[in-house]
């Protein structure tokens, strides 16, 4: 239903008496008095005066009497008009004062007072709706009997103002008490008459209501409604401004996805909680929670369902908080919880156990049950830090430690974690400088053909040497390089250097050998690895058959369809493909046969148990047989004893790599080995 919109200008016009109507009233009154005098004056004089002499004398003064009577009539009519005009001017003045009042709560209080005064009402209020259905309203300002009253809630439905949902105004001159329930606030105030207008925004959506009420029947609807419209227009504008500010404030302090406080609000609330804990001498726990493998969930289900997982989990966390402490969604899949007035570590452990139990309940997403786990770090005030910055950092360190220990567990902060975290930071800084200072060197570990006993290929291994330390193990810095993104330039440098060196050996007349280069998970999924390999081969001039790429088993099975597409692109380039560390991941043999892979590399953890560990021997023999059945060759790495070599040769393993044959060599030493093998 479209409502007719009345502007404040129209309302002001209605307040003031119309000029032509007033002039017509005065002229009509004067004309009527004149006609009556002309028609009736002689007859009236003849009835009351019979003396001819007195009658003649009175006829002389009849004109003066007419002027006197009509003058008094004019005075009365003008006085009455001016009084009405002055009253209207006072009302307009009061309206102008209300419109030009201050903003905020003070504005609404002043406005309610002006309303009651201008309309001579017992009560006036301005209320805003608190629910989307516009059924429940709460007063913003309430003026009652010349003083500010307490704000209260009231239902629009069932009251004398219920028609505001479909009408622009609601007029009830009397009998208000009989039109609503006895316990309604208006009934308790003994209201008899009321006038209400809906407060609407520029799109005519109902925001609230402005209402004047009297304990006596109300009259003069036109004048009262015209004045009220002026106030209603200003109040609606102010309500709309407040709603916009409230929305902006919520955007600044609340997470749009989960509805929880965001990082900014959490920091402010956490600082306040710390202040209270200092004053009371109590403990406070900060819990840092991060979901495990959330990126895998997003990659598998898509961003929309990933967001749904966050929303559902946020609801569960909120239920566990049960109004105690503070819960916030910081970023991505990270949440922070603040528990005030903690008595003991056991209390925190009990609460976290409830959290984990709630999280472990499967989520229903796209018709499937989804299980999620979380890694949690805890820092306790005052033992683990005196300020919010330190506590947040230490809780984050503890959470990272939980991730490193296999995820899905809880770690309380201890100083050893901080020292380890500091060492990681130092290592990261050194890693950045190492790229700039050319501190990385490639070593080449040769591989032995077990059936022929000759050199057959090599693996390029990176070595980091630095002044004051001979070298860093790749297991120390490669995971950190992946985490920081340095693996991208580092991996490209390894690939380029290995291909370039292999090409130089061939140009020097040395026998060609295939060089194997490791590819990280980040390189494989976050970069176009096929395009990178093609460019490097083009720049170095190396024939693709002399390059092999080693990809770990766990990387290949993250996204089967994407893996197959990428491997096919690399195969089409002519590059040989190797599955590294085979047997340590979660392989599916049904998928393995679909991969365009030429070689399986048995992880050294199995080789180390040969020949004494029957399980390792059985697995190794089975892998060799399976690989040959799939037309793949097999390389065993980490071979260090003659007994291991003999067993592998008997099992039919194609190649071996390890210190028994040769340690990793620098390029010049490997060139010497190539010369000796060719002799």
TrEMBL record:
The chain crosses the membrane at residues 20-40, 60-79. The lineage of its organism: Bacteria, Pseudomonadati, Thermodesulfobacteriota, Desulfuromonadia, Desulfuromonadales. NCBIfam families: GGDEF. Residues 424-678 form the EAL domain. It comes from Geoalkalibacter ferrihydriticus. Residues 282-415 form the GGDEF domain. Keywords: Membrane, Transmembrane, Transmembrane helix. This is Diguanylate cyclase (GGDEF) domain-containing protein.
